[in-house]
Amino acid sequence: TGWVGNEGGTAPEETWSWGEASVEFPTTNNTPVWRPVFCDVSIRPGWFYHPTQDILLKTLSQLVDIYFASVGHNCNLQLNVPPNKHGLFADGDVKRVGEFGAYIRETFETNMLTGASVK
């Protein structure tokens, strides 16, 4: 897979899922290969859990913007949710991820192409 190159969870508007042949993605004739791109971002200011950051989680609005600037730009979104020192997720993190999941499900629950035809 290819990394988009930042840890902000966003990708350029025209992001393509192909790349040159390589050791990881070999071909016999050097044709382009399918290589999905991923965007990574943390739900917190950093990649590791710190109790002082419990009030600094990304808002639902920020996560939605990140979603459309990553998945909406042909990338996989990797959302980091770091466990605390007990190996558990903080309650606030779990709640925010739940809100985010609910938003995505509600937004895309209706298939807008149902009944459509190609002319």
Question: Would you write up a description of this structure?
Answer:
The chain has helices at residues 60-70, 91-108, and strands at residues 2-3, 18-19, 33-34, 37-42, 75-80. It is α/β, with parallel strands linked by helices. The strands form two sheets. It has a three-stranded parallel beta sheet with strand order 1-4-5, with no helix packed on it.
Q: Helices and strands in order, then pairings?
A:
Elements: E1 2-3, E2 18-19, E3 33-34, E4 37-42, H1 60-70, E5 75-80, H2 91-108
Parallel strand pairs: 1-4, 4-5
Antiparallel strand pairs: 2-3
Keywords:
flat; alpha/beta; two-stranded antiparallel sheet; 15% strand; single chain
What is the overall silhouette? flat
Ranges where pLDDT stays below 50 over 5 or more residues in a row are: none
Number of helices: 2
Query: What class do helices, strands and sheet pairing give?
Result: alpha/beta
What proportion of the residues form beta strands (DSSP E)?
15-25%
Radius of gyration: 18 Å
DSSP helix fraction: 10-25%
Give me the strand/helix succession. Answer: EEEEHEH
What is the count of β-strands? 5
Cα distance, first to last residue? 36 Å
The average pLDDT value, as a whole number, equals 91
The major beta sheet can be summarized as:
3 strands, parallel
Strands of the biggest beta sheet: in what spatial order? Answer: 1-4-5
